[in-house]
Design a protein that fits this description.
CATH superfamily of the largest domain: Type I PLP-dependent aspartate aminotransferase-like (Major domain)
Cofactor: pyridoxal 5'-phosphate
Strand content: 15-25%
CATH class of the largest domain: Alpha Beta
Low-confidence stretches: 1-13
Largest sheet: 7 strands, mixed
Number of helices: 14
Shape: globular
Keywords: Lyase, Pyridoxal phosphate
GO molecular function: L-allo-threonine aldolase activity
Organism: Candidatus Fischerbacteria bacterium RBG_13_37_8
Family: Belongs to the threonine aldolase family.
Order of helices and strands: EHHEHEHHEHEHEHHEEHHHEEHEEEH
Length: 357
């Protein structure tokens, strides 16, 4: 299923497959490719790559943070934050379905040697009283809780946007206990587009945040970690220790600048297409989906058809040139992005109809 055949770019059909697996499959725009070809580069490890510096400066400005660091992946950005904000043995409170806990190969325990304390954030929204009840204080049998992580938008919770009020309440709690907050904002610009709340408002209530350039923003590679100056300087050292330092990285950073300059405003189109898809497929047998919770570009639904398994359904979709991902034995995810058009939505709806009815 991983081999997606492409046809000539000049052909109107663009793709044989409509790829809903993730917004990470987006291809760089022509403007990005041109910027990459003409990028001013230097050795970033030595501080000579002016394109990387420009990207980092722009990212700090857009997030309202003091400083920023370009890293190869969102996972590395998250792990750098955990490493800097904690000490070995500390506890980290986070959602049981968060990317940091669920998709990063136990990295917080391997790299930072901290103990995750997973809680159930309903719809990705932290329950402040539950978090307070689970904060550990230093004692003869425990270390302390030093970090709380939050994810916005929340991938496994269907792209839900965490309300700003939750950030305010969490900040107040963490101030009382002297605990840091890290925001996994892989899709924070989707959260801003859906809620109308600027990224700078969310960032006011956290100590650090990261966002991905390679998802809805459509750059080919990279993420940004943002935070205070001294935090970023420590992150720069740990990036090198983990093998994440890059040399003439301006070649790829140039695409990130284009992404931040020209791709944020169109994210609402992806959200509208996701809602349109959800509204239609929810009508078919076997699809359990609360369309009122479709806020951004992610559609996750339970598949409970009486005669077709999840695996069989995905195979049937594949035969009709539709790609999607299984999130579990009973859950399927569709993600819209800049390379998904209205025609792809119509194609997917028709495939559902033919398979399920």
């Amino acid at each position: 299923m991983a081999n997606v055949l492409l046809i000539n770019k000049k052909n109107k059909n663009r793709l044989v497959f409509s790829d809903f697996r993730s917004d990470t499959v987006t291809k760089p725009t022509d403007e990005m490719r041109k910027a990459m070809a003409n990028a001013d580069v230097g050795d970033d490890v030595l501080g000579d790559d002016m394109t990387v510096k420009k990207l980092e400066s722009l990212a700090a400005q857009l997030t309202g943070m003091k400083s920023a660091l370009y890293v190869p992946s969102g996972t590395m950005a998250n792990e750098l934050a955990v490493k800097i904000w904690t000490h070995e043995g500390d506890e980290v409170i986070l959602d049981s379905l968060s990317h940091i806990y669920f998709h990063e190969l136990s990295a917080i325990s391997i790299i930072s040697r901290v103990l995750p304390r997973p809680l159930n954030y309903i719809d990705g929204i932290p329950n402040i009283s539950e978090i307070e009840n689970n904060i550990s204080k230093p004692g003869p049998f425990s270390w302390k809780t030093s970090l709380i992580c939050i994810e916005n938008t929340h991938n496994h919770r269907g792209g839900m946007v965490v309300p700003l009020d939750s950030f305010k309440k969490l900040r107040k709690l963490c101030n009382n206990y002297q605990i840091k907050i890290h925001l996994d904002g892989a899709r924070i610009f989707n959260a801003a587009a859906a809620s109308g709340i600027p990224v700078t408002e969310f960032s006011r209530y956290v100590d650090s945040l990261m966002f991905c350039l390679s998802k809805g923003l459509s750059a080919p590679v990279g993420s940004i970690l943002c935070g205070p100056h001294d935090f970023i300087e420590q992150a720069r050292k740990w990036r090198r220790l983990l093998g994440g330092s890059m040399r003439q990285a301006g070649v790829i950073a140039a695409a990130g600048i284009v992404a931040l300059s020209s791709m944020r405003e169109r994210l609402g189109e992806d959200h509208a297409r996701a809602k349109s898809l959800a509204d239609e497929i929810s009508k078919f047998p076997g699809i359990c989906l609360d369309t009122s919770k479709i806020m951004t570009n992610i559609v996750i639904f339970k598949f409970e058809h009486p005669s077709i398994t999840t695996h069989e359904f995905l195979q049937k979709l594949h035969s009709k040139k539709i790609l999607a991902l299984a999130m579990s034995e009973k859950e399927i995810r569709f993600v819209t992005h800049k390379d998904i058009y209205d025609s792809d939505i119509e194609k997917a709806i028709l495939a559902f109809k033919r398979i399920l009815t």
